[in-house]
Design a protein that fits this description.
Elements: E1 22-24, H1 31-45, H2 53-60, H3 67-70, E2 71-75, E3 81-86, E4 92-95, H4 104-118, E5 123-129, H5 133-140, E6 144-154, E7 170-173, H6 178-191, H7 202-210, E8 220-224, E9 230-239, E10 246-254, H8 263-277, E11 282-288, H9 294-299, E12 303-314
Parallel strand pairs: 10-11
Antiparallel strand pairs: 1-2, 2-3, 3-4, 5-12, 6-11, 6-12, 7-8, 8-9, 9-10
Helix pairs in contact: 2-7
Length: 315
């Protein structure tokens, strides 16, 4: 989300969008437009494009997500799509770089709050690059920082270190069927130790990961313990449409009783190696200040390329 910090008077809560713009709830048919908008925003503020259309489609097709009730889009007088917001846990928003400073971001922030109230949420928040126009806008609107996140990359051509698993353990792709439910359980149990959110249903996990456009079985990597049960999980995807094909580890989790055995490092190294076999030249992931995992990733040669803050406001 980007805007000046002092939107015009007609961006107050309950009003329509700024003069000369129209707004409506989005539909699944708008996913491509949202992708193009967010890609334009990332090119300017990150210097690269990390988002994929499949990310949006996967999130929006979750059974718990109501696109028409949780989103809004903004168009200019010429019919160009220039802004969007969605409310959820977390929310997200963007304004086209060519339309900054016109009050769109401020209006979207207020509209996102209204949508979140309709969902019964106690607060609404979203991640923004630290120091970006969106960060400054939300700060001016009273949004506090909940946590800090770091995006890390394993540079192109970097040596992937060896990290063998202990005797009796094995690394492989998860097996479709019942094992996918075990994958989901390991992820949710681990993430909910430090994340203050509702437990994601298996159906939402399946829709956003397994049924995500482009998903392949090798994307779900697991470590099994000597009894054959899943001890650790990594979800790794490859964005082949970027300037440099890049693997992204969107989930990394270890069962509580299996920690301190080096499983996470071994699984991460495996994920990067397998992704490289599938065309990825670079690998990345993100972590935040709630996990204490930054050092883990730096130990295998990853470096921080972006810093984000998650800002929120009580409703």
């Amino acid at each position: 989300m980007n805007d000046d910090a002092s939107g015009p008077a007609d961006t107050a809560p309950g009003s329509g969008p700024p003069a000369g713009f129209t707004a409506r709830p989005l539909t699944m048919a708008d996913a491509r437009s949202v992708y193009e908008l967010m890609a334009a925003d990332q090119r300017v503020h990150l210097g690269r494009v990390d988002i994929e259309e499949a990310d949006i489609v996967g999130d929006w097709q979750r059974p718990s997500f109501d696109v028409s009730a949780q989103t809004v889009g903004v168009w200019d007088a010429d019919g160009r799509f220039v802004g969007y917001a969605e409310a959820g846990e977390p929310g997200d928003a963007a304004v086209h770089p060519d339309h900054l400073g016109r009050g769109i971001g401020t209006w979207l922030a207020y509209r996102m709050q209204e949508l979140a109230r309709g969902l019964g949420l106690a607060e609404v928040g979203m991640p923004v690059p630290q120091g970006s126009p969106g960060d400054r806008l939300l700060d001016a609107l009273g949004y506090r920082i909940r946590w800090t996140s770091w995006v890390l990359q394993l540079p192109e051509g970097a040596t992937i270190p060896e990290r063998p698993v202990p005797p009796g353990y094995a690394v492989r792709a998860a097996r479709a069927g019942a094992e996918y439910r075990d994958v989901h359980a390991v992820i949710e149990d681990a993430f909910l130790e430090w994340s203050n959110r509702r437990r994601q249903s298996f159906e939402d996990f399946e829709a956003s990961i397994v049924h995500r456009p482009g998903f392949e079985p090798w994307n779900l990597r697991v470590v099994t313990d000597p009894a054959g049960a899943i001890a650790a999980v990594a979800v790794v995807l490859v964005n082949a449409d970027g300037e440099v094909p890049e693997a992204y580890v969107s989930r990394l989790a270890t069962r509580a009783d299996q920690r301190h055995r080096g499983l996470a490092q071994a699984l991460l190294v495996d994920a990067f190696a397998v992704a490289r076999e599938h065309g990825a030249l670079r690998s990345g992931l993100s972590t935040d200040s709630r996990t204490g995992a930054l050092g883990l990733y730096e130990k295998i040669g990853m470096t921080v390329v972006d810093v984000w803050v998650n800002r929120a406001i009580a409703l």
